[in-house]
């Protein structure tokens, strides 16, 4: 995998997201990512247009970085919105806010917008069939809107402690087949996979050409190499499917931002460079 593109996942300072929160100001984090050799950042904003997308675009470009993705999880984490909320007004608000998130991504020049915890939880009141129907309608609507803006949506299977459905590649592919839009694709995250997949390598094979982006973190969500996940097997599977997408380091910044960010990129270079 020559020239693999790496991105550093940054949850904006003050974000309520439990991982990847940066303790330094965003411009500092971006400058340090560039100095360490990352190609891009991914960002979990605190709100729509916070950070301001034009400023974000200028700031990243000044450092020669691109924006691999905007994470939509803040809509759930900060605002309590979801596509499967039992209250129809909250579902509508979630879709409306997601549209604004697409606009933000386009203005910032981001390549993708992710769908993670904004899908909500089945246990919040609606039965499985009804929640899935709402989710399908929402994802098709925002997927078409993303298409018009030339953006790719990436749907990420998540672990059972964060959501109660779409845990595995198999489940998520079945859903993507129902969505049936070419710009709505799959994102994997080794931290979630370590909890939910029987075999991470087999799941990567199953993902195959649907795979758009991969998040790397170790078993404990520390930087790769600082847990017990078998990354050689992950790399073997990515090579075997001819993966050409990016690798995003979405991890806890411990013991501190610089140490984790450095370990992340050095590990990926040794593994896949
Ligand atoms: C975001 O990419 C992620 O992995 C989460 O834990 C939130 O859905
Ligand atoms: Mn992730």
Order of helices and strands: EHEHEHHEHEHEHHEHEH
CATH architectural designation: Alpha-Beta Barrel
Which CATH C-level class is it?
A: Alpha Beta
CATH homologous superfamily, by name?
A: Divalent-metal-dependent TIM barrel enzymes
Provide mean pLDDT, rounded: 96
Sequence of strands across the biggest β-sheet = 1-2-3-4-5-6-7-8
General shape: globular
User: Could you say which structural class the secondary elements and strand pairing correspond to?
Assistant: alpha/beta
Question: What fraction strand?
Answer: 15-25%
Small molecules in complex: L-Erythrulose, manganese (II) ion
Number of strands: 8
Instruction: Return Rg in Å.
Output: 17 Å
Number of helices: 10
CATH structural fold name: TIM Barrel
Helix coverage percent: 40-55%
What do you see in this structure?
This protein is α/β, with parallel strands linked by helices. It has a single domain (6-272), classed as TIM Barrel (Alpha-Beta Barrel), CATH 3.20.20. The chain has 10 helices and 8 strands. The protein has helices spanning 26-36, 53-62, 74-77, 88-108, 128-148, 169-179, 190-196, 200-207, 231-240, 257-272; strands at 6-11, 40-44, 66-71, 112-115, 152-155, 184-189, 211-216, 246-249. The chain has an 8-stranded parallel β-barrel with strand order 1-2-3-4-5-6-7-8, surrounded by 7 helices. The model has no long low-confidence stretch (mean pLDDT 96). It binds L-Erythrulose and manganese (II) ion (MN).
């Amino acid at each position: 995998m020559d020239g693999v593109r790496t991105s550093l996942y940054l949850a904006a300072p003050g974000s309520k997201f439990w991982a990847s929160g940066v303790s330094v100001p965003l411009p500092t984090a971006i400058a340090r990512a560039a100095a360490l050799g990352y190609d891009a950042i991914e960002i979990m904003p605190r709100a729509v247009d916070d950070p301001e997308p034009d400023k974000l675009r200028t700031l990243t470009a000044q450092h020669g970085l691109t924006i691999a993705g905007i994470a939509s999880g803040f809509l759930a984490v900060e605002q309590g919105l979801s596509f499967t909320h039992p209250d129809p007004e909250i579902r509508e608000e979630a879709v409306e806010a997601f549209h604004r998130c697409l606009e933000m991504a386009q203005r910032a020049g981001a390549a993708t917008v992710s769908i993670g915890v904004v899908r909500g939880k089945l246990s919040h009141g609606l039965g499985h069939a009804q929640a899935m129907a709402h989710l399908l309608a929402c994802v098709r609507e925002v997927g078409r809107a993303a298409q018009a803006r030339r953006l790719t949506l990436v749907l990420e299977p998540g672990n059972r402690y964060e959501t109660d459905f779409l845990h595995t590649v198999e489940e998520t592919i079945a859903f993507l087949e129902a969505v049936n839009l070419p710009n709505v694709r799959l994102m994997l995250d080794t931290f979630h996979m370590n909890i939910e997949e029987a075999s991470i390598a087999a799941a990567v094979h199953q993902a195959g050409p649907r795979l758009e982006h991969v998040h790397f973190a170790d078993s404990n969500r520390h930087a790769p190499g600082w847990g017990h996940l078998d990354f050689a097997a992950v790399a073997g599977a990515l090579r075997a499917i001819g993966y050409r997408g990016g690798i995003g380091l979405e991890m806890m910044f411990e013991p501190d931002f610089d140490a984790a960010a450095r370990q992340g990129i050095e590990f990926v270079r040794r593994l896949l460079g």
